[in-house]
């Protein structure tokens, strides 16, 4: 009995030691113009020309003026504000995609 | 037959009492002027204090400095309405230009009870939130204290717990907005959290950053 418990404890400790460290996820906002959107990946071009792709899933909310809209509203050429969650913008999952009026004045 | 021995003691004369009292008064006056005043109060009218090294004793007793509270953290030690700290306060000024829909969080590391004076202004509409995150806590543990719509605020803040304390400013519109904040307080550093995931910790300036006016 004691041998079994010791074995189970050793296996548990080995699994914990081998587990990857928890990554620190952060809120990230991506602002720009939609380049393309295939339903699961949204590519956005920022004001500085940099393109960023964020993941989109079924939980991602899409809104305009605070109201939900359908995914078909996310079309290339539209300006969006994407609040996402992840380590970096490249591997982030979109929590909300806001359709916003065309940005007039960028710094 | 018994013999009774008697001893007769003559009372001092009135003159003798006056002379003794005058001598005692004179001696006390000499001691007061030559010893007590220099040693206790630093007053040395006849120079005996300096000659005997008593003046230094008197000055030491009057001006002995009380050491400031010890400790590496800028935590207050309360004495009634007075808060004393182990070191001087810091000053900071920062200006941000927030592009359309951008935000920034600007937070100071402060100990529980430490205070901060602030003024900030924005040249356009912003969403603002003065809030705190406890030390070692996640953003879900944050507490919000003021998120009224404002374009400026001037005030003071006392940290309710040790952690990071400061503002979230968001530009909700399509034109750039400039936000300027100026503070003085007992904080050790300041952290910036930008909308695109950038994190920066900046050192803050001490009192030597303030120009001193001299006549």
Explain briefly what this protein structure is.
Chain A is of the alpha+beta class. Chain A is 16% helix and 40% strand.
SSE run of chain B: HHHEEEEEEEEEEEE
Number of helices of chain B: 3
In total, the number of strands of chain A is 7
- Unreliable runs of chain B, pLDDT <50, ≥5 residues? none
Helix content of chain A: 10-25%
Main sheet: strands, sense, barrel of chain B: 6 strands, antiparallel
Broad shape of chain B: rod-shaped
Task: Extract low-pLDDT stretches of chain A.
Answer: 16-24
Largest sheet of chain A: 7 strands, mixed
Strand arrangement within the widest β-sheet of chain A reads 3-2-1-6-7-4-5
Mean pLDDT of chain A: 82
Give the overall silhouette of chain A: elongated
What would your notes on this structure say?
The complex is a heterodimer of chains A (107) and B (215). In chain A, 16% of the residues lie in helices and 40% in strands. Chain A has one helix at residues 2-18; strands spanning 26-37, 41-45, 51-55, 61-64, 67-68, 79-86, 93-99. A 7-stranded mixed beta sheet of chain A has the order 3-2-1-6-7-4-5, with no helix packed on it. Chain A is elongated and about 70 Å long. Mean pLDDT of chain A is 82; it is low at 16-24. Chain B has 3 helices and 12 strands. The longest helix of chain B is centred in the N-terminal third of the chain and has 28 residues, at 14-41. Chain B is rod-shaped. Classes of the chains: A alpha+beta (107), B alpha+beta (215). Chain A binds chain B through residues 26-31, 47, 81, 88-89, 98, 100-107, and chain B through 97, 99-103, 139, 174-176, 195-197.
List the helices and strands and how they pair.
The complex is a heterodimer of chains A (107) and B (215).
Chain A: H1 2-18, E1 26-37, E2 41-45, E3 51-55, E4 61-64, E5 67-68, E6 79-86, E7 93-99
Parallel strand pairs in A: 4-7
Antiparallel strand pairs in A: 1-2, 1-6, 2-3, 4-5, 6-7
Chain B: H1 14-41, H2 48-52, H3 55-63, E1 77-79, E2 82-84, E3 90-98, E4 103-110, E5 115-122, E6 127-134, E7 143-146, E8 152-158, E9 163-170, E10 177-185, E11 187-194, E12 199-203
Antiparallel strand pairs in B: 1-2, 3-10, 4-9, 4-11, 5-8, 5-10, 6-7, 6-9, 11-12
Helix pairs in contact in B: 1-3
